[in-house]
Amino acid sequence: MAIRINPKLVTAIAKYGAEDVQKCYHCGNCSAVCLHADETFNFPRKPMRLLQMGLEKRIEASLDPWLCYYCGQCSTQCPRGAEPGETMMSLRRWLTARYDFTGISRLFYQSWKAELAAILIMAVLTAAGFLLYGFSYGDLRVYDGPGAFLPSSAVHIFDWAMAIVLVLLLGSNAARMWWLTTGSNKKIKFDFWLYVKKLYTLPLHFFTQKRYADCESRQPWKLHLWLMLSYVTMLVLIMFFLEPMQAGPDIRWSVHALGYAAALGLLVTVVYAIHGRVKKSEVHMKHSHESDWIFLFMLVLVTVSGVLQHVLHRAGTDMAANIAYVVHLALVVPMLTLEVPFSKWSHLAYRPLAMYLAEIHRVALPQPKALTEPAELMKMAS
Amino acid sequence: MSYEPKIVGFLCNWCSYTGADLAGTSRIQYPANVRIIRVMCSARIDPTFVMDALAQGADGVLICGCHPGDCHYSEGNYKAMRRFPLLKNLLKSYGIEDDRVRQAWVSASEGQRFADIVGDMTERVRALGPSRVHSTLLADQRER
Amino acid sequence: MKVGVFIVRSQQDDGINLQAIANYVANLPKVEKVRILEREPRLKSEKLAAEIRSESLQRIVLAGCSPGYFKPVFARAMAMAGGDPEEVRLASFREHGAATVDATERAKAIVACAVCGVPFPLAAEPKSTSVNPATLIIGGGVAGIQAALEIADGGKRVVLVERTGTIGGHMAMFDKTFPTLDCAACILTPKMVAVGDHDMIELLTNAEVREVTGKPGDYKVKVLKKARCVDLEACVACNACSDICPVSVLSEFDSKLSHRKAIYIPFPQAVPNVYLVDPETCTYILTEGKKCGACLKKCPKECINLKEKDQVVEFAVGNIIVATGYDLFDAKRIERYGYGKYPNVLTSLEFERITNASGPTGGKIVLKSKKLNKRTKVEEWVADPEAVAPKSVAIIHCVGSRDENYNPYCSRVCCMYSLKFAHLVREKLPEATCYEFYIDMRAFGKGYEEFMERIKAEGTHIIRGRTAQVSEVNGQLVVKGEDLLLSRVIELPADMVILAVGVVPAAGTLELAKMLGVPRDDDGWFSELNYNASPTHTERGDIFVAGMCQGPKDIPDTVAQASAVAAGVLRTIACGRGTNDLSTLSLSDIESRAAQIEAHSTQVR
Amino acid sequence: MDELKIGVYVCNCGTNIAHIVNAEGVKEAAAALPDVVIARSYRYMCSNPGQEMIVKDIQELGLNRVVVAACSPRMHERTFRNACKTGGLNPYLFEMANIREQCSWVHADKLAATEKAKALTHGAVNRVRHHEPLDSLTAEMCPSTLVLGGGIAGMTAALELAMAGHPVYLVEKADHLGGNLARVDSTAPYLDSARDLLTERITHLRENPDISIMLNSQLKSLSGFIGNFSATIETNGGPNPPERKVIPVGNVVVATGYKEFDASRITHYGYGKLPDVITSFEFEQMMRAGRIQTKSGKPPQYVAIIHCVGSRNQEFHGYCSRVCCMTALKYANEIKSALPDSYVSDVYIDMHAFGKGCEDFYKKSSEIKTLFLMYGKNESPVIRKAGPNDDCGMLIEVDEKLSGERIEIPADLVILMVGMEARPDAGEVARLVNISADKDGWFIESHPKLDPVATTTDGIYIAGTCAAPKDIPDSVAQARAAAGRILAKIAKGKIEIDGVFAEINEDRCSGCRMCNELCPYSAIEFYADKKRSHVIPAACKACGACVAACPSGAIKGRHFTDQQIYAQIEGVLA
Fold first, then answer.
1. Span A188-202, mean pLDDT?
2. Within an 8 Å CB–CB cutoff, is residue D485 touching chain C?
3. Which pTM value belongs to this model?
4. How far, in whole angstroms, is CA A14 from its chain's centroid?
5. Which residues in chain C (429-488) have CB-CB distances under 8 A to chain D?
6. CA distance D13 to chain B (A)
7. Residues A338, A122: contact at Cβ < 8 Å?
8. Contact residues, D window 494-553, toward C, CB-based 8 Å cutoff
């Protein structure tokens, strides 16, 4: 049964960043230079082809875009300037939008204004909420201990509430991803034990991102890993050690040492990223989608405000610290609630999941063996 | 002194003769038994030339032209090619050994090939020994 | 008639002052409105139609570097507005060479013609000049040879200047020619000999054009004749000098796969069949006569003079034909193909020599092998007839071509010669496997498609996909690329890899272009006067281009162009009238001529 | 004729010959041969003293035959022939023995080499005995040219010739000039105006007094040979009865062009049945009318262009039509320009963007978001009507090679890129002007590489698409090339005919006409009245095929006569 192509998709995808995909004349160079492409997952050329032809169903069902870490080799060597790397990036954005059942993600990617507006509203609401809470239960001049403006206990509950919401949102999207790529695939029959056996790949790839290390240059991987570990540390500290974190004024090295390290990591890597994107110093930083900028700047602001409130508190200026804290929360909340499930940050979930599912595919799908013999070649050709 | 066969070579002017010259300019050695006669095209080589050469005492005859498709006159060598089997039959009927008369294609850039052909042919003809055609043919002619 | 002029801005039109043009056009009679459209304008026929109606325009002139793209949208608008779509006229600056001298003035003239509905070439006809019957041909490749013979056979004098020691160019190095597979030597050498002893052809080999002055029909030429050190008349090509010469260097003609002496003849069938001395390597010359000089003593005809100096000859000609041909793309630039790193990654020309019956291996296809150069004591990779034959050969298309990182253009000949290579490999090494990696198989000429089918039938694996890299895995070359039709990335072992390198303008093209005042296109090839109408004429009067130097071309097209150029030359001589430079025409000349023609024009269609 | 006086000269070529061959020995052997009055050996026969030696001997000893045993005749035959000329001897009374390239340079055995050298010299001496003085003939060259076909090639050739001041008859079948170019709106890859090109050419043609344009005319017959043809042209100008005109011409340029492939031959494209499936030429008409629209009058949203219709397909034409790819890209651009909101799918096999500026054009075409879809050779897309709830008029089903998917392409308008094919009357034309056509009906050039415009018949040239598909620049170049050949011939005034050619002894000729078929240059005509064949010296290339074949030995190949060769055989074997 023939599938209907959709020439309009190429124009649509431009909103997600891919502007040069149509330049590709299919020489296959990119797929051949890519260190991640293999017998089962042949990219970036194939996904580019599907994109050109607008075969949405096929793209939805493919994990390929998530297996690319954008080292940029394909783009530098492309004879037509078709930017395969950037196209894969855009496909990831497009897929994120597809996985998200709320449609918010699609909205954000297609209009940065919307995303910014959403963030602002969310920020205002959060600020208002916490101020309301603070003034009704505490004293702006007190930072911690009794009568604190924003006692860790309260914030802690809020943290967890938010975390649960996020997990739910992200989880449901992840489930959709599973369904589109694997669940709905007739060729892959559900095998529970296989899923269990391969489960280890999730944390493995989440924490090490080892495949990223296989790319031509290891530099981007190191930075990305550092960034990731930094905010994971921060996350853990906040989710489980908020109380000692917030307590003061003297420094509690047990937790704060980690906190400082994480903050430093965040600052350095993010500033590096911004600088790189401004200077377009590296291939994978040549093209920046609005969502990239928003994400990076949010991250900077959050980190800075966080550091600020901490410093002010240690300095004994509790009132200022409280204000900084409110600002900090007003930035963190929208970033987490909007970026994590609906925008760039969601890849923290999708990538490892893709690796996990890829493993499943490799086992479940019939494995074509590498072609090195002309005889086989001819067999295939005929 | 050992028996030295005499071979007459009919070479077309455009490919084979030039090829033979190239063998010379590249100093490629081959037996001195061949005597070359230049014609414009292999199509010009009348079977009677071959018969006459044998009658005059040649032990072998070599016919060379351009490779099929390369003929300076577009298709002369095909004509020669078609003519050759007939000649062969004629020779057979005279009881002349197959190896004595040979047709080969030599291009202007195949000096080595020409030398090889001559070398090979000389050996074959030497192996066959002196041709009896000379005498027999003359006899025939006397009867006529 | 009311005319509207729309000027389209584009990247190319730097150096052209569009505003000035607009102002000029506005003052032309009949011109109702002038508008400058911004770069890549988003035009809608509906809007334009309204515009046309409101101004009741009967003719639209689209001006710009190449405004052709926008013609349809205007034609549609014209039709919508009830006008005649054929009255949308183009004034293409590029088409009529406004990239050259004072572009803006030329552009004005082009627009002026379009406004009158008169083709620019009709109105812009330079005055004719008197013509010196002698002709200069630069470049002794097949194009130069063909043109020289045509003109000389017409009984006109020709001076053929060739940079190297022999005429024949690249074609003389080839083994067979596609698709007929007849040997290049068989068809070229007779022509070379003919050039050599033609009464009307003066052959200046080992010489370079240094200066061209004067005007169309009467050019003054200075040619530097480099010292050949061997008497052209006396030498009988006996090889005695070369035998004795102790200096042995890699032969350029054999693309450095074999050795030649410091006194040498490029190849046995060279024309003139006379030896020459390479001053860079001759011991005698390098030591100013202190050492060696063996050949002097050996030469039986005493026709060697190692003290000979370069000399400059001057002469006048009427027409000049540029046939400088091409160089090969430097494969070293693409590191991932490992050319220069792996000895058995060859360029196409190297393979031509290896497979050539009169080449270093006598036509045996073998892998390169190490040889010690006794004199220099360094090991060199050369083609030795005794070496082993490859079991597998991979041919990679589009090396340096169709690639923005190198040459964006298609080199036009690689597909076909690659197929030819495949045939030769299969023919000479029936056991060997042979792969072709291509992007598009451009078999467009007469009998080419059939040739491709034949090669396929012979069992060559033709793989659609560009090779990404050639690497060495424990001594075995491996070629990696995607087979697009299988949509699989494949890695194939290959003992020999042939890079179908593209072509680039010959070294010195830039200088020559400056010398002659002939513009070049973006890729560095000489620009023809008009892509369709005059593919072999140039901006300069009585200067023509033929063959590869105007753009990639195969032999038949090159020969056709060469003969075409000969026609141009013979014509000017026959009627004693050459054409002056286009630049001699003033704007007002063209303007008035255009008006004239329009007045009693014989409208076509 | 008076008794023979042969002079034999053995060259030492420095030591090149002498170091292996005993030149003195060869000289003495030669001197002993009958009729040899003088035999000399010298270091360099090719040197001036060497040549003067020959001249002197001719004049003083009254030599009437000369033999030089030296290098290859390909090197110095000309030199020595000239020497004979200066000595007052007919150059054809000279013969050369090749004792360098084919003796001293290829043999190490001095004795054998010397013997061979003697034999070769003997052969030459024997041969030269039978040489006859030959003179190159000359024939008149009529300066006027007949050009068949008024397309871009024909017009260009005609102009080139006429501008040199030579009369030209431009014969065009149709009632207007321009040929297929006149049906085209603009040209790829630069989207220049085809009309301007045409206007320029035609205006020049009409202005030129040396050109007589004959519209509605056809060649009816052509007789004679190069320089001296006479052509019969039939003109039927509407109502009045066709009139015939006989014109003398020196050369003929055949530029009859092509016709487009008939798309209705391919059923699965539904051309002729589906209203919105059109050919490239029909689209050109739309362009010129400024209306790209479906039969229902609406501008199409989806347009599909299908390449290689009738080309590169063993069922129809095996060859590539060379221009369609770029034309297709041109359409993609034109459509996008006229209808910016439309979507263009370009269904191709290989993208032949080989010409100057073409690859760039290909890229530009993809930048305007043309969707390129690849199908396989000899596979064919199927076009069918779309269903009621499709947003398009038609659907094209095809196996897309680059994705491996079987897809449906939406289309409201489908353009078939019909290839080129030989005109139906090509065979007829070939017969009239006595040239041959290949299996596809394209005229055959005398050499596909080095002689693309000449044919095997002297004085008949081919240009443009009648020889094979070609784009405009290549056609123009070819047309000029043909003109160039003719200009060169005319410039010489007379045609030199080398003294070496075949001649038929009419008393011996049985009129079997075997030779007529054999001659690749159709240089042998048959006198029906006398029942005899006759060689046209001007057309003969002296290959000698006919000489060898003539059953009654009536044909004599001058300078390669049986006598001469028999003598040489005897000599080399003596």
1. 92
2. yes
3. 0.90
4. 20
5. 440-450, 453, 464, 484-485, 487
6. 14
7. yes
8. none
Q: Which residues of B touch C364 (CB under 8 A)?
A: none
CATH architecture of the domain with residue range C227-308: 2-Layer Sandwich (3.30)
From chain C, pick out residues whose CB is under 8 angstroms from the CB of D453: 560, 563
Strand partners, D252: D146, D460
Section A301-313 average pLDDT: 93
Alpha-carbon gap, residue D574 to D563, rounded angstroms: 16
As a whole number of angstroms, the distance between CA A28 and CA A25 comes to: 9
CATH number of C3-124+585-599: 3.40.50
Helix (H, G, I), strand (E, B) or coil at C505: strand
DSSP string, B60-112: EEEEEEPPTT--TTSSHHHHHHHHHHHHHHHHHHTT--GGGEEEEE--TT-HH
Element at D389 (helix H, strand E): none
pLDDT at C604 > cutoff 50 = no
Residue C407: partners with Cβ closer than 8 Å, 6 or more residues away:
C329, C400, C401, C502, C504, C523
Q: What is the mean pLDDT of residues A323-334?
A: 95
User: Does A51 score more than 70 pLDDT?
Assistant: yes
| Structure-block tokens of residue C253 | 């003609």
Q: How far apart are CA C226 and CA B80, in angstroms?
A: 48
Q: How many whole angstroms separate alpha carbon B66 and alpha carbon B72? A: 8
Dist. CA D284–CA D280, nearest whole Å: 6
Query: For chain D, which ranges sit under pLDDT 70?
Result: 1
Instruction: Name residue C317's beta-bridge partners.
Output: C219
Contact yes or no for A377 and C484 at CB 8 A: no
Touching partners of A (3+ C-beta pairs < 8 Å):
C, D
Is residue C375 predicted with pLDDT exceeding 70? yes
Both structure tokens of C259: 């050795």
Contact call for residues D422 and D440 (beta carbons, < 8 A): yes
CB C451 within 8 A of CB C421: no
Sorted by where each begins, the domain ranges of chain C are 3-124+585-599, 127-226+310-325+506-583, 227-308, 329-504
> Please, what is the Cα angle at A144 between A141 and A148, to 5 degrees?
55
How are beta strands D168-171 and D145-148 bridged, if at all?
Answer: parallel
Residue D246 forms contact with B (CB below 8 Å): no
Encoded amino acid at D55, one letter: V
Minimum mean pLDDT range among A362-366, C408-412, D486-490 = A362-366
Burial of B142 (0-12, 13-18, 19+ CB in 10 A): exposed
Q: Is B39 left (phi over 0), alpha (psi -120 to 50) or beta?
A: beta
Backbone phi, then psi, for D217, in 5-degree steps? -120, 155
Asked if residues D423 and D259 have their Cβ atoms less than 8 Å apart, the reply is: yes
Closest among D466, D182, D471 to D322, alpha carbons compared:
D471
Paired tokens of C493 = 């072992």
Q: Does ipTM come in above 0.95?
A: no
Give backbone dihedrals phi and psi of D525, rounded to 5 degrees, phi first.
-105, 160
Q: What percent of chain C has pLDDT over 90?
A: 78
The CATH number given to B7-143 is 3.40.50
For each of the domains in chain D, give its residue range(s) and CATH number, in order of start. 6-134 (3.40.50), 145-257+423-494 (3.50.50.60), 268-410 (3.50.50.60), 498-558 (3.30.70.20)
Please give the class, per CATH, of domain C127-226+310-325+506-583.
alpha beta
Residue A367 reports pLDDT greater than 80? no
Is the CB of residue C559 less than 8 Å from the CB of residue D449?
yes
Q: Are C144 and C192 in contact (CB under 8 A)?
A: no
Closest CA to D47 of D71, D24, D18, D64: D71
- Going by C-beta distance under 8 Å and a sequence separation of 6 or more, which residues neighbour residue D507? D554
* Interface membership of A49 toward D (CB under 8 Å): yes
CATH 3.30.200.20 corresponds to the domain C329-504: no
The two domains C127-226+310-325+506-583 and C227-308 share their CATH topology (first three levels equal): no
Q: Report the SS3 class of residue A228.
A: helix
